[in-house]
Structure formats: structure tokens, C-alpha cells
Amino acid sequence: PTGDYGPKTRDRLEAAKPEKRPVKVINKPKQLKISGLLGPATITRWQDEVGAAQTGKLDRATVKAIQTSLRKKGFSVGSAGVDGLFGPATITALQKYLGTPADGEISRPSPAIKELQRRLNAGKF
Fold first, then answer.
1. CA-based, 20 to 30 A from 28: which of 47, 69, 88, 123?
2. Between residues 125 and 45, which one has the greater pLDDT?
3. Which residues of 68-100 are buried (b: 16+ CB within 10 A; e: fewer)?
């Protein structure tokens, strides 16, 4: 071997056959079902987006991460600030951010959660 890219090297590279093993995609998240229901799969994906521990539960740490994210985007999460409570002020901020009707409540199914699921599927929370 000379380390040069000469005619012999070119010929060998062009003659080489690619491997026929399938390429495995690691950790490709499943697409969320757009249901409008705030279940563990949606919460886990949301936790991943905001940097919270992925537990599938809407715990205080997760809500604090969501509130911090919303504040960074310019939305008020209420006079108490980042308190870890998923109350009307945080829900209203989320609804405004998502561009859905803002009433401070999560209905079943919820237009806000449907939009959240769409954005999480697109990786754009």
C-alpha cells in the first residue's frame, strides 16, 4: 500500500460489492397516535423533548421542564412561575403556544393534545 489513490485503488473500490445487510435504525421513536388523549406515550415523548426523565407520568419535575420551555418561548405560566403544577395558567400557556383555543382546561379529547402529538411526531415542540 502506498497511501495514494491510484488506478489500482480506484478499480478495487469500484469493484467492491456493498454489504447486503439491512441498515438498522436505532431508537427511532414510534409515531404517536393523534388521539387528543394525554397518555403515557405522549408524556414520555414530551419528557424527551423538554429534557425531563422519561417516566410516562406528568410529575412535578416534568411540569417544571414544560413550564420552563414555555417561558423560554415567551409564554407566561402564571403568577407562581415555574411551580410544577399543571394548572389552568400552564394549560392556557400551552394552548396559546400550540395555537388552539385557550380555556385553561384539557378536554377529552383535547385539541391542544392533538396538536401537541402532531408536533411531537414532527420533533417540533
1. 69
2. 45
3. bbbeeeebebbeeebbbebeebbbbbbbbbbeb
Radius of gyration of the chain from its Cα atoms, rounded to whole angstroms: 23
Q: Which of the 8 DSSP states describes residue 51?
A: T
Say whether the peptide bond before residue 7 is cis (omega within 30 degrees of 0).
no
pLDDT, averaged across the chain: 90
pLDDT in the model for residue 79: 92
**For helices 60-72 and 88-98, what crossing angle results, to 10°?**
50
What b/e string do you get for 23-32 counting C-beta neighbours within 10 Å, with b at 16 or more?
Answer: eeeeeeeeeb
Cell numbers found for residue 85: 403544577
Residues 55-67 pLDDT 10s: 999 999 999 999 9
Q: Tell me the backbone φ, ψ of residue 110, rounded to 5 degrees.
A: -110, 130
All three cell numbers of 12: 478495487
Residues sharing a CB contact under 8 Å with residue 28, sequence separation 6 or more, in sequence order: none
